[in-house]
Design goal:
By secondary structure, the protein is of the alpha/beta class.
Length: 163
């Protein structure tokens, strides 16, 4: 019995140590730099996210109420962003094109809508909640916001991190 307890404790300790080592290993967190990221537009065209430049990626879905509430704010801020050479890309996560296009019919959005159909970009950038907005310069994520943004918050954060 004593030998069994020692073996069990050893196995638990080895398992815990292995888990601690593996969970603390640096994850390969993708930045938009180094590998070309190509997504599809709502019209079916291929679109490569630039490796250089200043832009914002906003991850959203049709079933997400905060995503819907912030769309008008992003639309209102878009002209100001453009005047400062900041591009905005709205990335829909894992939904069919038809559903996305039906949803977008109620908005007249001037910025590109991209489709992350399989969620690969979402996974590589470790997007866990929607909406999530990334502020990116030359492929490096400078700031991340998890949750809804107002127009003023979007513009303030853009000025702080991207101008």
């Amino acid at each position: 019995m004593k030998k069994w307890i020692q073996l069990s404790l050893s196995a638990v300790l080895i398992g815990a140590l292995s888990y601690a080592i593996i969970s603390n290993m640096p994850k390969q967190k993708a930045e938009a730099k180094g590998e070309e990221i190509v997504l599809q537009t709502t019209s079916g065209e291929q679109f490569a996210i630039p490796e250089e430049g200043t832009y914002i990626l906003n991850f959203w879905a049709t079933y997400c109420p905060p995503c819907e509430r912030e769309m008008p704010a992003f639309k209102a801020a878009y002209e100001t962003l453009q005047s400062h050479d900041v591009e905005l890309y709205a990335v829909n996560v894992e939904e069919p094109t038809r559903l996305v296009n039906q949803y977008l019919a109620k908005f007249d959005l001037p910025f590109p809508i991209l489709l992350d159909r399989q969620g690969q970009l979402k996974e590589s950038l470790e997007i866990l909640t929607l909406p999530t907005t990334l502020f990116i310069q030359d492929g490096k994520v400078l700031h991340t916001v998890k949750g809804e943004l107002t127009e003023q918050e979007l513009l303030t954060l853009t000025q702080k991190f991207l101008y």
